[in-house]
Amino acid sequence: MTILLTGSSRGIGAAIATALGARGATVMGHGTASGIPADFADPEAPRALWAEALDRAGGAIDVLVNNAGVFEANPLAADDWTAAWERTMRINLTAAAELCRLAVLHWQARGSGGRIVNIASRAAYRGDSPAHWHYAAAKAGMVAMTKTIARGYARENILAFAVCPGFTMTGMAEDYVASRGGDALLADIPLGRVAMPDEVAKAACFLALDAPPSMTGAVLDVNGASYVR
Ligand SMILES: NC(=O)c1ccc[n+]([C@@H]2O[C@H](COP(=O)([O-])OP(=O)(O)OC[C@H]3O[C@@H](n4cnc5c(N)ncnc54)[C@H](OP(=O)(O)O)[C@@H]3O)[C@@H](O)[C@H]2O)c1
Q1: How far is ligand 1, taken at its centre, from the CA of residue 69, in Å?
Q2: Distances (CA, A) of 227 to 128, 140, 162, 184
């Protein structure tokens, strides 16, 4: 089982890489510190990453996990608001869409079927802070795209799933929790704590390797019941 996992260098992606590796999967990682480098701010990068991963994998990728993402504040009054909106859309949504497209075409050409796991966010359903319109919109787009792929290609055994984590204890979340008042934010999570990366990884690993085909299109929440739907 060969898996292309974006953003595998740290945080949730590193935990997913560990979980998949423990199950015997071959993980083609991506990131600055390890794996295949590709900056998704560059429109050409997803295609180059896919081609390089396919080459290193010997011509067959079975699962795509879109995990790479940014969470950058974009205050309404910022002069470069539109540029920041477009940057987040490109990295968090367009790059994932391009990789999904290339994966679907690859599996159709092989006649093999395949699986996509998109790491979205609780923000897709709940929204986010006033400085993160772009982030919530990108993640909502990712969920809608996942459902569209699931419905469009299930007959070809091409399955698509999403995971929506709430706050998760990576570097990114630590900064965010601190900037939002720490304990007050935690009080909004019935479980009493943020999620750990290995909890999100367990959900992603299940979807990548074990979820029954009839689950295609499913979106799994990992948020300590901070948003139930
Ligand atoms: N942590 C949370 O609270 C939380 C909650 C909900 C959803 N999520 C989602 O979960 C995913 C992982 O988040 P995380 O918290 O683990 O993040 P993280 O620790 O900040 O890691 C982000 C990953 O994305 C990659 N990345 C960042 N900018 C990139 C770019 N321009 N081009 C290509 N790759 C880039 C990074 O690669 P480099 O190492 O090369 O920079 C890194 O591997 C994201 O999609 C995030 O939106 C996180």
Answers
A1: 4
A2: 12, 15, 16, 16
